[in-house]
Every structure is written in structure tokens, then in C-alpha cells.
Task: inverse folding
């Protein structure tokens, strides 16, 4: 919007200019001030790009793009401070410039008035002196006029083009000024807003801090949970191992000792029975044995006794 | 006597010293102080590029920055500072403390400073929050964790006493005043605080060595309990209204609960130093505010037409645009802020029927009085929030404590039937016990003496300008007496050692401190007195002697914070504080002798009174039941735990 306005405005000024073009001086002055303006613009522009480079430097090696670290916050604040300073300076510069221009224009007007006054006096004097001079003056005047008319006719090729260039230059510089302005105003904090409150800014860092604390707690939770997970894994491993043991150990026992504990009760009984049987057999065997042996022994004994 | 300026100079001095990139470290106490007196942009212009809390543990190391610390002399802050100095994160340290630093603390700091990074240690006595040029606050809103009262309402909590003493000393030191002290006779707390301050002045006599003025300044210590009415009233001037309805916290207002608010306006700053419109209008009544705001908006519209792209036709226009645009933008932000704020205020006034309530409140607060029936009607009316009903009954109880005890009991019962919880309704009696007529020393409603009655009748004859702002806080009467040199020594005695002729001199500078919190209405009174004492008293002072006033308090109250303070304090008081004040029963016969007509209403009131106290018992029973439930819960929990293990 500012661009369009700036382009229409100089044109309008150009059309209105011939009426103001009483002396070349004023044109020159305008030109010089615009040059100075553009030059200072360049300075301001450079300041602005430097300010913005502060943040780009930060982006060059970002420590952590998501979480604004203290360094980036400080950088941002440096930007803000400098931007405010530049804005202030450019405003005062522009104000000073305007005042100076007004003063200069006032001087020029005064000078011109003086000149005209003195010229009028001299003209009147010459009028009284000589009429021929008057004619000559008139002639020269018309010549000058025709010359200037000629110039206007020929103009488009040289002067108008130059002026056109000049005007586009001005338009450009004003557009860049507007842009600079916009860029700066993004950075600068308005007074009286919440952003300007010290407490709010500190609270913001506290919020970051809380975020950080939260992240830390999440991290510790993860850490703890990995510990837990390890524990669970270990327990699972142990359980698995035990299951394996449970599966394999009985099988190994299966081959040599098939009787499970339920079957193991009869053997004792059986052994008892066997034992009983054995005992009975023993008894049975014993009974006849003495019957058979005793006579021998008796015999032996007897024989011994007899021998 | 401008506290904002005083603190501002301190802050500027602090951040000016090392002229390089700086970090400003604050603690929880000094943050609001700095925030109220400086803005981020002023700090930035002094190359303070980071502000942070000292208790923020994860600050990055930045050895290229220098550090300015402004801290309270509390143990927490000193401990945090010692930790910081043991592992310095910045290049150099400039330490400033908000109050008198003890020698042992300095020694501790010196021991902690192993790397010798400390360049400077100074005391800057900005230990109070400068809210307005003539109003400071110690920012200690009493709560259950930070109590003001001890075990009764006549004793200090030791910590609160210490802080109040420190705050007042800081005010005196920053303004270079060595005052004589007067206090309100009814308040033992005021006397205690006065003695503490005097003791501090005497023990730090080298600090208080100022050029003697002809008449020493006066420190007047008042007690909130002598005027419980002012913080209970609805407010009708801009700043007070915002604080009453939305709450101002250190110059910030939270608008996030406002329906349909824009995101950038969900929280705003509201201080007189940064906001010219607010500076001009913060004392204006709500009606005047509406008209001035309209003008303000129109002014903005006119300028916005001038800034319209179609209005820019020449280079001169363009130049003007470029010059004026920043200011225009600022104006735009300010206009939308105030429009949103005033819009919200009027919405709340409408929603809560504050105009009706406010009129009755003003009647109750002044000598005019109010009809029992109108109060009854408002209490039973639907649409009036329970909170306002409670305030209304409290005011009624304060006003007619002695004469219409029966009505008070009836109103409390009505409250209970109309959406006010038992916990809240009990506070009416708490208020009467804590700040009832037996506790107050002055005639708050000018109803007691004949002379006062006559005076108020005279005032009534003059007519009232605005129904909603007819109440003047009790402070204004005290000040009037002070201006005339008629402040009685019997009710506002001097501390010992003030000198015999102290009562005859008229002080030039008066610092008023209100124990238990002051209000914006009182600040307004003080400001009006400072501007033009003749107009402020309706011409009853004829020769103002150029007295300058400064008001302060433990905090700045609105009605909710005041009632919360009562609630949290009453828990620690003996349980009899919840009972109806004794004189309503025991004094009744005597009252009857004096005023024959009250007899009937008193007789009728008795059951009501007992019923409410019976409900108190119920509450206790509830408490008991809760206790039992708790115990059961714990047992259950234990069983559960056993079951799980």
C-alpha cells in the first residue's frame, strides 16, 4: 500500500512542480536532501540488516531449535533493544531533517524576496535610465522563454528522463524506508503492553523452566521405566529359565525313575511284603535247617564228644 | 514523597553501573517491585538483555555477561545467591539488597565468593511495591500460608511483623525520613509495629542520620479493623473498580476469562506510569469514564482517518505518516485495551446487578442507612451473586450491630436459604467479632454522637453528587483532623520519646501505614488530599499547610481478598470467633433501657441466633464425621496395601 502511494505521489508532485519551479536552487536542494535521505537510509538499512543478522547468527549453530535457550533469549533482547534505539534515532533524524529543510526553505524564500526587492529597485532605476535596455531585456527574456520552451520540447529525451529516473529513485527509497519501518516495528516492543512488563518476561522464563522441569521428569520417568523394564525383563528371563528347568528336569528323571511319587508308596509296602516274605522264608528256611543241621552238629559234637 | 520515582531512581542506578551486556537477577519478592517501576524497554536501553530469577536453577553459563542482582535479604535469596557465587555463571557480579544487610550475611557472601567475582555490594532500600506515586504496598496479601495475625486478632504473626517493619524502614530510608510515630489506640498491633520501627530507627542511627527538618515527619500507623467497611464496598472509580471486579496484580490484569476476548488482550498491564489514558482517568468515576473513553475513541478514529492510505497524497503526507505511525499504533493498542476493559466492567455490573446492590451498600456505609426490607429483598433476589449478598449482610451487620441484632440473625438465615454456604455465612459473625463496634475506636457511621449526626445532616442538606460515591473512607476524616491539627492524642497517641511539644507541631510529611491492607478508595482519598485538600474536604479545611501524604499497607485489598483474609485468619483464632458477639445477648437489656422500641425484635431474634450457632455445631459435627471418614479411609488404604503386598 505504501509502495503504490509513493509512486503516485511523486508523479503528482512532478506535475505540480513547474509552478513551483521559480529557481533551480530549490530543485537542487530537494535533490540533495533526497540523496542525504537515501544515504542515511542506507545506514539505517545496514543497521537493520545487522540487527537481523544477530538472530541469523543464532540460527547458524542452534543449540536446540525447539527450546529457546538463554543465549537465544538474550539475542532476541539485544535485537529488541537495538531496534528500539535505531527506531528512535531514525525518528529524531527525520524530525531534524524536516526542521532543517523548513529552515533552509525559509532562508531561500527570504533571499529570493531580497533579490526581487533589489532587482525591482534596479529595474525601476533602469527603467528611468534607458528604454533601450528595457527592449533588450524584453528581447532576451523572450529568447530565454523560447529557449526554455525549446528545452521543454526537446526535453523528453534528456531532462525528463533524468527527472523520471530521479523520481523512481525517490519512490524506491521511500518504499525501502517503509519496509525498514515495518521490520523495525516488528522487533520493537510497544510501551505499555504486556511484553514490556518485566514480571511477565520473567514468568515466561519460569514457564520455560517449568517446561524444562516437565521434560526432565518425563526423562527421569523414562529412565526409571527402563530400569523397571530391565527388572521385568530379568524376571521374565528367570521365569523362562525356571520353566525350562521345570520342563527338562522331570524328563531327565523320567528315564531312570519312572514311578512318580504316587507309585512310590506301594514299593515300600511291597518291600515290606517282600521283607515279610523273606522273613517268613527265612523262618521257614530256618526251621528245617536246624532240624537238618542239628543232628549233624549234634553228630559232630557228638562225635567230637565221642572222639 | 513520590515512591514510584524513588524506586525508579534506585532501579536506574542499579542497571546503569557496568556499561556492558548485563543480566538482571531478581527473586520472587523484588520482581514485582522492579516490574512496577521499570519496563522491559527501559531495561533494554540500559543493556540489560536478560532478566531472570535467581532461584532458576537451569540458567546457561554466560561468562561474557555481567550480572546485576537485586535481592531481598531473606534467607532463601541469600542461600540462592551463595550457590550462585560458588559456581558463577557470569563474569562479574554487582549485588544490591533491598534492605539492611546484616554483617553475618556479608561474611557468608564473602566466604562464598571463592572466585572473587563480586564487584560491588550495596543496599538500595526499594523493599516495597510502588503502586501509585502516593501508594505503596508490601505485597503480602495475608493467606493461610502467610498469615498476618497470630493466635488472636490483636497479635502479630512474627514473620509478618518482621516483614512489615522491614518494609516501613525501607520506605523511610528511601525517602530519607526520620519520623515520629503515632498509632491507633485501639490496636495493640499498631503499637507493637510502631515500637519495632522505632527500635530499628534507634539501632541503625547511622543510617537514619538525615538533615533535620524543622518539624519531623509523621508516621501514622492505622489498623484495618478500625474501618472494615471500605474494603467491603463495591467500587465505582476506574482503578478501584478494576481491582474489585477483575483484580490488579502488580499492575497486571487478567482478562482471559472475559468472553470473546482477543488473544493479545487476554492479559494487560495497567499502571499509571506507562499508560497516559489510565494516568488521567484512574480516579474518574464510572460515568465520567464512559464519556472520556468515547472522546478517546473518537480521537483515535480521527487520526486513523488521517493515517488512511487514501489520505496520503503527497510526500509531505508520507513523511508525516512515517513520523506519526509508531505513536498511532501505540494509541490504537491503548484504545482497544481500555475499550475491552470498560466493556467488561459494564458487563459485570450488569450481570451482577451491581447498580442496585451498590446503591444500598452506599446507604449502609454512610449515615443515610438503609431499610431492612430492601436488604432483605436483595438477599432473596435471584441473579444477585451469593458473594454480593454476603457483602451486603456484612455491611448491614456492621451498621446495625447494636441496634438490630435480630435483623442480622434473620438476614444470616436468609443467606443460608439463598445460596450462601454455611462457611461463608459464619464470616458475618467473624467480622463482627474482629472489627465490630467494640473493636473500633471511632464512630464509623457518624450515628453515635449528636454532633456527628448534625454534621452528617448538614452534609445531607448539601445534596449528594453521585449516589454511588457518597461514601468517604474513615481515613478521610482522620486526615481532615490531622490537617486541622485536631487529631486527638487520646485516640492517636505518640510513642514514648516523641517529645512533649510533638502534639503541637503540624507535620509536613505524613506517611500512613495501614495494617491489614489498604484499598484503592483510600489511595484516591489521599491523592485528592494531595492535589487539593480544600476540595477534598468540601471546604472544611481553609488553610492547607502544604502537607504531603503517602499511604501504604500490607497489601491492597478488594472485597474478596479482604474476606479471604478474615476466613484464613479466623481458623487460627479461638473458636468463639464464630459465635455471635456476646453483647447482642448480654447487653440486650441495657440496650432495651436505652431504646425501648427494639425489645420486640430482640425477642424474636433469639431463636434465629441460636439456630445459626447450632449450625456451627453441625459444621463441627461435619468436621468430626470428616475426621472419622478420613480415619476409615486410612485404615482401608492400609488394608489395601497389605492386600497388595
Result:
Amino acid at each position: 500500500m505504501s509502495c503504490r502511494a509513493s509512486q503516485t505521489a511523486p508523479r503528482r508532485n512532478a506535475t505540480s512542480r513547474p509552478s513551483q519551479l521559480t529557481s533551480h536552487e530549490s530543485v537542487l536542494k530537494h535533490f540533495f536532501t533526497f540523496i542525504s535521505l537515501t544515504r542515511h537510509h542506507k545506514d539505517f538499512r545496514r543497521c537493520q540488516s545487522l540487527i537481523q543478522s544477530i538472530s541469523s547468527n543464532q540460527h547458524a549453530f542452534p543449540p536446540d531449535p525447539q527450546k529457546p535457550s538463554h543465549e537465544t533469549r538474550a539475542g532476541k533482547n539485544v535485537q529488541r533493544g537495538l531496534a528500539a534505539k535505531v527506531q528512535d534515532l531514525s525518528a529524531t533524524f527525520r524530525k531534524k531533517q524536516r526542521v532543517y529543510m523548513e529552515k533552509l526553505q525559509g532562508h531561500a524564500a527570504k533571499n529570493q524576496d531580497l533579490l526581487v526587492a533589489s532587482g525591482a529597485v534596479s529595474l525601476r532605476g533602469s527603467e528611468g535610465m534607458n528604454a533601450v535596455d528595457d527592449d533588450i531585456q524584453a528581447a532576451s527574456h523572450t529568447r530565454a522563454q523560447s529557449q526554455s520552451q525549446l528545452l521543454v520540447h526537446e526535453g523528453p529525451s534528456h531532462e525528463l528522463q533524468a527527472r523520471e529516473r530521479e523520481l523512481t529513485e525517490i519512490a524506491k527509497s521511500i518504499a525501502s524506508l517503509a519496509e525498514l519501518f515495518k521490520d523495525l516495528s516488528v522487533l520493537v516492543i510497544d510501551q505499555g503492553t504486556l511484553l514490556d512488563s518485566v514480571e511477565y518476561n520473567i514468568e515466561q522464563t519460569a514457564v520455560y523452566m517449568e517446561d524444562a522441569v516437565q521434560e526432565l521428569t518425563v526423562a527421569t520417568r523414562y529412565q526409571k521405566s527402563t530400569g523397571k523394564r530391565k527388572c521385568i525383563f530379568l524376571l521374565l528371563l528367570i521365569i523362562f529359565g525356571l520353566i525350562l528347568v521345570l520342563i527338562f528336569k522331570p524328563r531327565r528323571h523320567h528315564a531312570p525313575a519312572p514311578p512318580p511319587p504316587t507309585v512310590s508308596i506301594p514299593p515300600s509296602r511291597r518291600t515290606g511284603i517282600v521283607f515279610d516274605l523273606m522273613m517268613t522264608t527265612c523262618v521257614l528256611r530256618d526251621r528245617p535247617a536246624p532240624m537238618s543241621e542239628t543232628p549233624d552238629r549234634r553228630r559232630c559234637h557228638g562225635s567230637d564228644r565221642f572222639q | 514523597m513520590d515512591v514510584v520515582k524513588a524506586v525508579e531512581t534506585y532501579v536506574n542506578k542499579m542497571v546503569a553501573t557496568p556499561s556492558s551486556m548485563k543480566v538482571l537477577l531478581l527473586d520472587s519478592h523484588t520482581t514485582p517491585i522492579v516490574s512496577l517501576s521499570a519496563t522491559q524497554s527501559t531495561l533494554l536501553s540500559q543493556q540489560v538483555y536478560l532478566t531472570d530469577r535467581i532461584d532458576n536453577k537451569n540458567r546457561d553459563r554466560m561468562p561474557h555477561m555481567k550480572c546485576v542482582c537485586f535481592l531481598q535479604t531473606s534467607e532463601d535469596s541469600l542461600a540462592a545467591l551463595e550457590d550462585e557465587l560458588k559456581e558463577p555463571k557470569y563474569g562479574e557480579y554487582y549485588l544490591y539488597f533491598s534492605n539492611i544487610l546484616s554483617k553475618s550475611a556479608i561474611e557468608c557472601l564473602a566466604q562464598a565468593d571463592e572466585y572473587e567475582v563480586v564487584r560491588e555490594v550495596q543496599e538500595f532500600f526499594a523493599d516495597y511495591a510502588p503502586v501509585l506515586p502516593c501508594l505503596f504496598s508490601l505485597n503480602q496479601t495475608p493467606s493461610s500460608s502467610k498469615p498476618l495475625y497470630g493466635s488472636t486478632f490483636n497479635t502479630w504473626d512474627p514473620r509478618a511483623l518482621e516483614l512489615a517493619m522491614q518494609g516501613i524502614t525501607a520506605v523511610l530510608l528511601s525517602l530519607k525520613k526520620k519520623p515520629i510515630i503515632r498509632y491507633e489506640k485501639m490496636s495493640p498491633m499498631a503499637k507493637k509495629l510502631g515500637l519495632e520501627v522505632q527500635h530499628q530507627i534507634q539501632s541503625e542511627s547511622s543510617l537514619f542520620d538525615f538533615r533535620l527538618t524543622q518539624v519531623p515527619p509523621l508516621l501514622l500507623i492505622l489498623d484495618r479493623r478500625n474501618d472494615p467497611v471500605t474494603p467491603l464496598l463495591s467500587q465505582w472509580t476506574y482503578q478501584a473498580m478494576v481491582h474489585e471486579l477483575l483484580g490488579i496484580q502488580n499492575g497486571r490484569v487478567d482478562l482471559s476469562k472475559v468472553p470473546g476476548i482477543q488473544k493479545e488482550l487476554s492479559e494487560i498491564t495497567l499502571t499509571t506510569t506507562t499508560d497516559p489514558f489510565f494516568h488521567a482517568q484512574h480516579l474518574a468515576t464510572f460515568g465520567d469514564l464512559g464519556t472520556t473513553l468515547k472522546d478517546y475513541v473518537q480521537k483515535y478514529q480521527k487520526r486513523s482517518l488521517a493515517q488512511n492510505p487514501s489520505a496520503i497524497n503527497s510526500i509531505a503526507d508520507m513523511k508525516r505518516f512515517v513520523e506519526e505511525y509508531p505513536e498511532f499504533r501505540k494509541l490504537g493498542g491503548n484504545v482497544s485495551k481500555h475499550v475491552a476493559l470498560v466493556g467488561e466492567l459494564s458487563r459485570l455490573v450488569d450481570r451482577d446487578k451491581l447498580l442496585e446492590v451498590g446503591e444500598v451498600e452506599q446507604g449502609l456505609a454512610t449515615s443515610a442507612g438503609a431499610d431492612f426490607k430492601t436488604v432483605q429483598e436483595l438477599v432473596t433476589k435471584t441473579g444477585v451473586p451469593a458473594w454480593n449478598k454476603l457483602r451486603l449482610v456484612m455491611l448491614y451487620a456492621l451498621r446495625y450491630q447494636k441496634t438490630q441484632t435480630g435483623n442480622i440473625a434473620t438476614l444470616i438465615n436468609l443467606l443460608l436459604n439463598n445460596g450462601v454456604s454455611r462457611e461463608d455465612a459464619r464470616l458475618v459473625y467473624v467480622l463482627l467479632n474482629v472489627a465490630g463496634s467494640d473493636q473500633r475506636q471511632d464512630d464509623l457511621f457518624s450515628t453515635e454522637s449528636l454532633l456527628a449526626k448534625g454534621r452528617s445532616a448538614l452534609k445531607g442538606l448539601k445534596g449528594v453528587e453521585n449516589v454511588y460515591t457518597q461514601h468517604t473512607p474513615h481515613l478521610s476524616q482522620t486526615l481532615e483532623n490531622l490537617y486541622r491539627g485536631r487529631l486527638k492524642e487520646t485516640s492517636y497517641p505518640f510513642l514514648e520519646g516523641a517529645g512533649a511539644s510533638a502534639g503541637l507541631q503540624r507535620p509536613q510529611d505524613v506517611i500512613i501505614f495501614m495494617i491489614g491492607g489498604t484499598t484503592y478508595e483510600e489511595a484516591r482519598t489521599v491523592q485528592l488530599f494531595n492535589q487539593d485538600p480544600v476540595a477534598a474536604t468540601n471546604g472544611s479545611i481553609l488553610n492547607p499547610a502544604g502537607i504531603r501524604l503517602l499511604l501504604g499497607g500490607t497489601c491492597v485489598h478488594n472485597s474478596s481478598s479482604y474476606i479471604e483474609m478474615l476466613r484464613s485468619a479466623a481458623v487460627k483464632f479461638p473458636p468463639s470467633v464464630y459465635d455471635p458477639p456476646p453483647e447482642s445477648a448480654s447487653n440486650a437489656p441495657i440496650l432495651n433501657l436505652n431504646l425501648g422500641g427494639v425489645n420486640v425484635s430482640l425477642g424474636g431474634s433469639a431463636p434465629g441466633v441460636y439456630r445459626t450457632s447450632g449450625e456451627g455445631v453441625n459444621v463441627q459435627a461435619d468436621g468430626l464425621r470428616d475426621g472419622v471418614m478420613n480415619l476409615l479411609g486410612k485404615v482401608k488404604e492400609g488394608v489395601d496395601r497389605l492386600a497388595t503386598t
Notes: The CA atoms of residues 144 and 266 of chain A lie 150 Å apart. Chain A touches chain B through 51 residues (CB under 8 Å).
